[in-house]
Design goal:
This protein is an all-alpha fold. It has 16 helices and no strands.
Length: 372
């Protein structure tokens, strides 16, 4: 019994010392809104939680305007024209294909159709029927099927495999319509993960993408999933893939941030290592990602993806000022990792943003000292 009391006393002493240490280092915690100690993100011009856009990682007003038009009128032609005018090899076209497919999938989920009711996403079906040779429509349809498989079925089931096989066929059709377009093959990367392509078959698919768009960040992020431990690879294979991409990244490429995504995909569920987010492997990956966003062009649509993940790691690492610098560049949009893994992406983002603001102010920062 005496030993038990000694152990309990040691635990309590450790807890007290931890709190003292955190206060000395300017560590912070969350308090209720309206509390006298609560930092207010609105003081920095940040959007309210209910105003955060969960559809995209960053702004694309042309896409938003067309999405609104298509969903309001159920006329696909705006989407067709926008994709036709978007560079085939670029990151933005891939994001727009995903957005249109996601919109159709969400519509169908909200309105599955019934007796006398038109199912949601009907505009995509009309698009494929009226313009069967349109490469943009074929790519959106293939991505739609992929998203349907992941959203409506469980990986490994017959239902999942049937939808994925249909998606694979749609990818092949889309590729025939536009031989130089990397998008159908990028869509197929998710099919490869879902169906468990053998490595040789996956690597052949990857070579087709490298031939068409060797520095495509979105493609690399999709391929990374295959090599992760939770799918068909391992931590070592995922790290190796990400580090190789970063090593061959041309100047100004966001591929230098790939190791940070590999670290994120292999975070321990329970962190038993003190200071994990200040560890060498995390610090190195964060520095690579920071260099990437500082070197990339301001109009690179993948920059927002990297900045969102940086906010997560910088807040966890208590690097408050650096987290605030990223927030000023991306605030308003939350359609990216890690927030999209949460049932409520806006709420998850808002928690990290509040922690960043509180930590920044606890260490002497204010709206006046934050560069914009």
């Amino acid at each position: 019994m005496e030993i038990l009391w000694v152990l309990m006393a040691l635990v309590m002493l450790g807890f007290v010392l931890l709190q003292i240490s955190r206060r000395r280092r300017g560590a912070v915690g969350l308090v209720e809104p309206g509390h006298p100690d609560a930092a207010d993100p609105a003081n920095y011009g940040f959007a309210r939680e209910e105003e955060l856009d969960v559809r995209m990682p960053g702004p694309d007003q042309d896409l938003l305007d067309v999405l609104d038009l298509v969903q309001r009128t159920q006329d696909y032609r705006g989407a067709q024209l926008l994709l036709a005018g978007t560079e085939a090899e670029g990151e933005r076209r891939w994001q727009r294909v995903q957005a249109f497919a996601g919109a159709a999938s969400l519509e169908l989920r909200q309105r599955p159709g019934g007796v006398g009711e038109t199912p949601g996403g009907q505009w995509l079906r009309v698009w494929r029927a009226e313009a069967p040779k349109d490469a943009g429509g074929a790519a959106v349809h293939a991505e739609f099927l992929v998203q349907q498989a992941w959203r409506t079925a469980t990986a490994g089931t017959d239902e999942f495999r049937i939808i994925m096989e249909e998606a694979k066929a749609a990818c092949g059709e889309a590729a025939l319509l536009a031989p130089g377009d990397p998008i159908p093959y990028i869509v197929e990367l998710s099919v490869a993960r879902g169906l468990g392509y053998p490595r040789e078959e996956f690597e052949q698919l990857w070579l087709k993408i490298l031939d068409r768009a060797p520095n495509h960040m979105g493609a690399h992020l999709a391929a990374l999933q295959y090599w992760c431990e939770k799918w068909h690879g391992s931590r070592e294979l995922a790290y190796s893939f990400a580090e190789a991409a970063a090593a061959r990244a041309p100047r100004g490429s966001l591929l230098a941030a790939m190791p940070l995504f590999a670290v994120f995909e292999h975070l321990p569920e329970v962190n038993l290592v003190s200071g994990f987010y200040q560890s060498e492997v995390v610090t190195k990956a964060v520095h690579g990602a920071l260099h990437a966003v500082h070197s990339a062009g301001p109009d690179d649509p993948m920059q927002a993806h990297v900045r969102h993940l940086l906010v997560f790691f910088l807040v966890r690492g208590e690097r408050w000022a650096e987290a605030m610098n990223q927030l000023t560049a991306i605030d308003g949009h939350v359609g990216a990792l890690p927030w999209t893994l949460s049932p409520d992406p806006a709420a998850e983002f808002a928690v990290y943003r509040a922690l960043a603001v509180a930590g920044y102010e606890a260490n002497g920062g204010s709206p006046a000292t934050l560069p914009h």
